[in-house]
Amino acid sequence: MRILKLLFGSLVVLAVLLVAVAFALPRQVHVERSTAIAAPPATVYALVSGFRSFHSWSPWFDDDPRARYSYDGPAWGVGAKMSWASDDPNVGSGSQEIIEVVPVERVRTRLDFGEQGNATAEFRLSPGAGATQVTWSLDADMGRNPLARYVGLMFDSMIGPDYEQGLAGLKRVAEALPKADFAELEVAEVDVQPMLTAFASGASSREPAEIGAALGSAYGQVGRFLAARRLAQTAPPICVTTRWDETGFGFEAAIPIDREPDKPVPASSPVQIGRTHGGKALRAVHRGAYAGMSATYDKLLAYAAAYGHEVHGNAWDQYVTDPGTTPEADLVTHMYLPVR
Q1: Cα gap 218→233, rounded to integer Å
Q2: H/E run at residue 156
Q3: Same domain, 140 and 216
Q4: Contacts of 238 (CB under 8 A, 6+ apart)
Q5: From residue 190, how far is each of 193, 262, 278, 310, 338 by CA, in Å?
Q6: pLDDT given at position 240
Q7: Residue spans of the chain under pLDDT 70
Q8: Do residue 198 and residue 262 come from a single domain?
């Protein structure tokens, strides 16, 4: 009996000691991993500032492909939220919501694991020499629960490998996207209404001077067509890109008009009547000389790819300012890319 009392007393002392040690352990837990990604910060930011492409690089998606996901709020930025539910105890249920962003620099999220508690995670992006340094971190408050504080000691070994795997996936996805840096691009998602136009088709090489000459000739044809049929222009001229490849540039030079012509237009006419695209599109703003529009298009295409938009149809430009009366440096062109 004396031995049992001693054993019981030892266990009590050990328990008290463990509890005392637990309260000396850190209450705040921090885990972080970093990697360098050969992509512009804007591209990486697009991938981590929303959940549209999360599963393409997430370290947890393959743990239970049958898990159920739902999404709330905007697609990107503050308020974007993803919730999940899984019958696999290793995945469980919870949600992740973006609560703070600094564009192209930082994204902070709140993680809610239900009865298992809450945490915050953060992506920090910093540009380097030809790469973006990405740091993914997690912070949790283990509270006053002694057992939770002991678990906190294992967080780095438990979560660190997942973060390493996730960053490797993020690197793979980001480095496969177009390399154009669209950080300074003025772009918006818009719904456009179709417009009635008179247009002439044409083609040229990709040399800016030849493009200008070909467009000038085509718009001249359309202008004479409008004058002959007494049709009025209702909006700035439009150029629809029908081809842009190593063989050259194909286009439709179009002018929006107020009505259908009084008489049918013969199929042999170099100018025809049609309607522009209607629906969802990305609109970018190009400022300055037309010779720089190709680079702006590269940025627009990179933006669309990074944010998961599927291109749907031919791109087009609308010449907001008149090149005949506006200095080249002040020219404004709206560039549209139809997307699903």
Answers
A1: 15
A2: helix 155-175
A3: no
A4: 195, 197, 199, 253, 254, 255, 256, 276, 316, 317, 318, 319
A5: 10, 33, 10, 15, 9
A6: 98
A7: 1-27, 142-154
A8: yes
pTM passes above 0.85: yes
Indicate the residue among 175, 209, 244 that finishes a domain.
Answer: 175
First-residue to last-residue Cα distance in the chain = 79
**Helices and strands (H, E) in the chain, number of each type:** 6, 15
Q: What is the pLDDT of residue 143?
A: 59
- The answer to the question of residue 32 being in a domain is yes
What is the tens place of the pLDDT at every residue in 137-187?
999 876 566 555 445 556 777 789 999 999 999 999 999 999 999 999 999
Q: Is residue 180 part of a domain?
A: no
- Closest by Cα among 236, 265, 261, 240 to 250: 240
């400022």: which residue's tokens? Answer: 287
Domain stop point among 132, 147, 175: 175
- Residue 273: give the domain boundaries: 186-338
- Residue holding tokens 């009590």? 12
